[in-house]
Amino acid sequence: MKHLIAPSVLACDFARLPEEIALLNDSAADWIHLDVMDGRFVPNLTFGMPLVEAINRLTDKTLDVHLMMLEPERYVEAFQKAGADWISVHYEACPHLHRNLQQIKATGAKAGVAINPHTPVEALFPVLEEIDLVIIMSVNPGFGGQKFIYHSIEKIKKLKEEITIRNLPTLIEVDGGVGMQNAQVLLQAGADVLVAGSAVFKAPDPKKAIQQLKNIGGLAL
Ligand SMILES: O=C(CO)[C@H](O)[C@H](O)COP(=O)(O)O
Ligand SMILES: [Fe+2]
């Protein structure tokens, strides 16, 4: 499968939201990554369902919603109704992860789990069959523009090996500090989806930056 690019709007100019989404609509972006932060699980606050709903009206792209919140089960249905196609919760925030995954799938959305840099991928192995997407956090969640944590590459490799052995359709997404400087290595390690915030929106030409990330490893399909 050709890898997917998911620009994160966290790094965009919210005062120009319709223009920023129009730019993504007119780009090689496959998904739009939306970072929801609750100010409790992570030390930052961003946005909730109203913004997801507004973005959903501005685009036909797949919406990839990354919930960095405690008790995500309280909002999963509302995010799906707002337009989320993929909903990911954090392993560290979910003592009942298996139940949370069932809940997400019952809404009709795809179910993802994000893991922090200190969480081993093996923690997900007992429920891997239930997971559509694993987000390997390659920074500590909470802020855009942070430095990539190198150890994440080993985690991608280990997870890819397990997914391949079990012949699962589970996708691997890498989130945090991703750009042209490490994209090739991440794809070689087994990543399927690259999230890029700063590398896209802080670039002089965001559309070109997306196309360059898409072109890695051959021509874009
Ligand atoms: O989940 C996130 C942070 O918690 C963001 O998706 C991530 O940081 C993307 O931003 P950048 O590419 O600038 O690192
Ligand atoms: Fe994210």
TrEMBL record:
- Highest lineage ranks of the organism? Bacteria, Pseudomonadati, Bacteroidota, Saprospiria, Saprospirales
* Matching CDD domains: RPE
Positions bound to a divalent metal cation: H33, D35, H66, D175
Instruction: Please give the name of this protein.
Output: Ribulose-phosphate 3-epimerase
**Record flagged with keyword Metal-binding:** yes
Residues the record marks as active site: D35 (proton acceptor), D175 (proton donor)
Which gene underlies this protein?
Answer: rpe
Q: Which Gene3D superfamilies match?
A: Aldolase class I
The entry's function note states: Catalyzes the reversible epimerization of D-ribulose 5-phosphate to D-xylulose 5-phosphate.
EC number(s) on record? 5.1.3.1
* One GO-annotated biological process of the protein: pentose catabolic process
Q: Which organism is it from?
A: Saprospira grandis (strain Lewin)
This protein's source sits in the domain of life called Bacteria
Task: Locate the residues binding substrate.
Answer: S8, H66, G142, F143, G144, G145, D175, G176, G177, G197, S198
Q: Which Pfam families match?
A: Ribul_P_3_epim
